[in-house]
Design a protein that fits this description.
There is one protein chain. This protein is of the alpha+beta class and about 280 residues long. The chain has two domains: about 160 residues, tt1808, chain A, CATH 3.90.1570.30; about 80 residues, no CATH class. It is about 55% helix and about 15% strand. It contains eleven helices and six strands. It has a six-stranded mixed beta sheet with strand order 1-2-3-4-5-6, sandwiched between helices. Helix 1 runs antiparallel to helix 2, helix 1 packs across helix 4 and helix 7 packs across helix 11.
Length: about 280
Amino acid sequence: MASVSNKVKERLVLGIKKFQPVLLSAKSRDVNESDTVMIVSDILSEVFGYDKYSEITSEFAIRSTFVDLAIKVNGRIEILFEVKAIGLELKENFIKQAVDYAANQGVDWVVLTNGVIWQVYNVFFNKPIEQELVLEMSFLDLNPKNDLDCDHLSLLTKEGIEKSLLGDYQAQRQALSRYYIGQMILTDPILDVVRKELKKVSPDVKIDNEQIKEVMVKEIIKREVLEGEKAENAKKKIIRSVSKQHKKNQKEDSDIEEKSEESTVQADVVEPVTEAPQKTE
């Protein structure tokens, strides 16, 4: 995961230590939604580094509805925040409301929080609109000495947004997801490796990629990994990637052949040798 500067990390550590007692007190008093919004706004400013007066917008209107907070960086809305009362459990219908806000505004990221639990969602502008939970963390469980906790927090910082750390983190999660790995296993380059290794074990047995693939699909990889929209999206992306790499390899091979031919032609051209004039007595 891409890291932020030591200065930012120091701010995160101090922020964890400062706001954990604040959140504990607010939770014990079961404060209402308005008070929770105030705490979240302070966290966005003091911990995540946004300017309270120019980059944190409250009650941002989108098509006659409102979100509690919005983060604007360099004039662009980057994240929408739906805030619920600190004692309220975050439910699925809360997510839908926040995602609808994001879809109407064309914002990729939504955070649903009650101050303690922070859920970060990536919004996909499909039909229908979809969302994927990218990260969930409890502010009260964060350990200021734990680098991974600080790394997760850094994704939501102003510096992290400017460096697109959330997008990088999501890309890494996708690459390591069971859907992507499941589809990758079924590509010819991977099947070629398996076939070659199997031939070493059983040199007299005829095995082809289709036979290996059939075993993978029917007996090894779980059905849920290979079926459904997420699996289909992973398959399309991997096919595009493999095709792109194949074209790149073909071009490189073609370039090598052309250079080889040029070298051969140059080698066949022999410069005429002129004899040095003989010295006369």
